[in-house]
Amino acid sequence: MTTGISNASRPINRAEIEACESNKRTPVEFRVGTDALAVVVSSENTFLENVTKDELRQIFTSAETWSEVNPDWPNEPIERFIPGADSGTLDFFAETVFDRQLEALTEPELIEILKANLSTGLLRRFDAEAPLVERSQPELVDLVLERVVEQQVVQSWELTESIFDRAEIEETVAAIPQGELQWRSWLTPAFLVTPQSSTPELAGIRTALFGTLWVIAITILVALPVGVGAAIYLEEYAIMVANPTLRRINAIIQTNINNLAGVPSIIYGILGLAIFVRAIEPITSGMLFGVSDPTTANGRTIISASLTLALLILPLIIINAQEAIRAVPNSLRQAGMGLGATRWQTIWSHVLPSAIPGILTGNILAMSRAIGETAPLVVIGASTFITVDPTGPFSKFTVLPIQIYQWTSRPQAEFRNIAAAAIIVLLILLLTLNASAVLLRNRYSRRLS
């Protein structure tokens, strides 16, 4: 039998447990050493020899330079390191610096820890959400655990496993030092309003959700009028053309529309990359309109994605709108023109109102396809990791399908959990938009009936 000693000052992690289980070994833990705090300075440092507890507290909280702690020390910045939850030294750190454990610290002491370890931008963001001085002590403790300590989910179980394998789960948790078994729902309000993060426990879909809404809104605004307009021309005007050449051109257009409905979506992505991202880059990057953001100068923006998806769903909208217009009885057209109305007046006042329910049905199908598309957006260069919310059509972006794809490609089980939560959000968003369109369609149908 071989015995190995490794990292005896921290809890065993999931990867080590799985490695032992795969080799049919049971990990046994003993406390081999006692953690200590180390204040690490450069090799040229000759002044830091005897440090009082008060000086140690200042070093790890409010002081930014050595001279602020002791005037005899040089005016050089202090680089801090706070032990993580998996190191086993967090409680020892809090007790040494503050004489108390983390949960017993006061609000000012917790705020000192946050100011000493978080960036100015992050502190400003937290203050904008809710000022730190107005937060309760439990809220500040949670914030320190989340942003400074960075607690980790060591292992997670599905609902069925939690119900039927409870005893086995509790045995696993008991084998993990400082392990705590908690019920966790990955789909929470915080998940919807939190931006992306490389840590699954802190990750959210706010950026991807805003990107999806921006892309879909512009796509529908572009594709719907163009698609309905094309359908009106092909059904109401093209059939009246007497010129053989124009009739042949119209027939070619109709054939191509029918064929384009079956073209793989990645082909549209290549077309969007060639035209919107590269050929008309000054327009899609916003440079032509005075947008000077250097990160969007390559045209890989929301407007490029929206125009690409508009091309993708145009055949669906046109074909369904044609069917809806074709289903309107000719007697309505004849009655309108018999009363002296022009062809356009007849189309606007009689044909389109009768065809709107069918047109909206086609729009629902097209929108459903656009929301779930990933391949064309990957080709045109949508971001797979971005923490900045889009602010306009010329912003960098990501969307929910790409976010889901990125998370499912990660090896950690926690990323798969949040990917499942994002899939549920995507389905709810899709059903909500479709339900709104169906209600709008039914409303028009009742008016016409």
Describe this protein's structure:
- This protein is mainly α and 449 residues long.
- The chain has a domain at 206-448: MetI-like fold (Orthogonal Bundle).
- Helix content is 59%, strand content 0%.
- The protein is built from 20 helices and no strands.
- Helix 17 (343-372) runs antiparallel to helix 20 and helix 19 (400-408) packs antiparallel against helix 20.
- The radius of gyration is 31 Å and the shape is elongated.
- Residues 1-6 have low confidence and may be disordered.
CATH architecture call of the domain at 206-448: Orthogonal Bundle
Question: What is the average per-residue confidence, as pLDDT, rounded to a whole number?
Answer: 79
Helix content: 55-70%
What's the end-to-end separation, in Å? 84 Å
Tally of helical segments: 20
Q: Which structural class matches the secondary elements?
A: mainly alpha
Radius of gyration: 31 Å
List the main descriptive attributes of the protein structure presented here.
59% helix; disordered N terminus; mainly alpha; 449 residues; 0% strand; MetI-like fold
